[in-house]
Amino acid sequence: MADERRLIARAQSGDTAAFRTLVERHQARAHALALRILRSPSDAEEVAQDAFVRVWTALPGFRGESTFATWLYRIVARRAFDRAQVMKTRRAREWQDENLPERAAPVNDEDTLRAAKLQEMIGGLTAAQRAAVTLYYYEGRSVEDVAHVLGMPENTVKTHLLRARAALRAAWTHELGDEA
Amino acid sequence: MNCLEFERLLDDGARDGLPAEALAHAHGCAACARSLARARSLERALEAHFAADVAPPAGFVDRVMARVERGEARGVRWLALPSALPWWTRAALEPGVVLALATLALFTWRGGRWLAGARVTWDVLAHVPRWVHDGLIAAGFGPVGDWTLRWLDSIAASSLSVQVGLALGVAPLLAVVAWLAWRAGEAAAGAT
Description:
The complex is a heterodimer of chains A (about 180) and B (about 190).
Chain A: H1 2-12, H2 16-38, H3 41-58, H4 68-90, H5 109-123, H6 127-138, H7 143-150, H8 154-176
Helix pairs in contact in A: 1-2, 2-3, 2-4, 2-6, 3-4, 4-7, 5-8, 6-7, 6-8, 7-8
Chain B: H1 3-12, H2 20-28, H3 30-51, H4 60-69, H5 87-92, H6 95-125, H7 128-138, H8 142-157, H9 160-191
Helix pairs in contact in B: 1-3, 2-3, 7-8
């Protein structure tokens, strides 16, 4: 943490090597968040790149009121939402399942099918619901943190999570049938 | 606890586990026990899904740093000003401030020529209402042309404060129209 604060201070004074280290540290999660929200690898990369460039621009004004990661994710999430709005009108989805990164080792064909089904179910959520679910599960953040990152009231985040869970549960129940 | 309340609890997704009362209900209710098993199965699937690493594309950091190095960001980057400098030193070296000071210096040095240039520009602009009027008449919009000419003439004849007020009122409107046009263009580009 202290090491990160030093890196931030150096980057604030224009040290690009320090900023590079910050990008290296946070690239995976920033990119993953954009990808989870947008579901398009090319858009996710562009959004994540834009977010880092924006971070570099705004870094001199960063006062450390939130953690660097929270600040970064907030920028990523907002840009991803903006892009999702544009993509909504585009309709054509670039997403293909083969573009998905490797997921937690499915042990048999049924697991593979379920993983694909889950991916499809998550794709049916709105961008805001996906973002909330991603931060809640993937980042393991509290509702308060998710609200802070997404710049939404906590109740809105709770509503997104509630609706997302209800939709996922309904689809999952349908998927499982009488099993379980 | 009844089945409806139990379902609501599942939708709330108690991450730290369900309360004992809910578990007791599920123990005695086959339908809710099945719902609980499915909900847990979904939680496990979601956790596995989100726990998987999503590696960023190769060369991602290089591409970000290339944009940073190109000076795409941070206006004062070219000076690499240390943040330890007092704010007024950094403010004085901001590109906008430097540009304003340079403009002021040029104006002081060659102000007369600038004013002469401004006079020529104004003389040309003064013909615009007549051109608009003539254009509208030629296009068959005579009454509109007369009305436009009267309107533009009345603005030109009004006091400076009225002109400034109108400019200040119209500028945000133009900005909003430009923004809407940009959004529409972006949406159209996105739709293709």
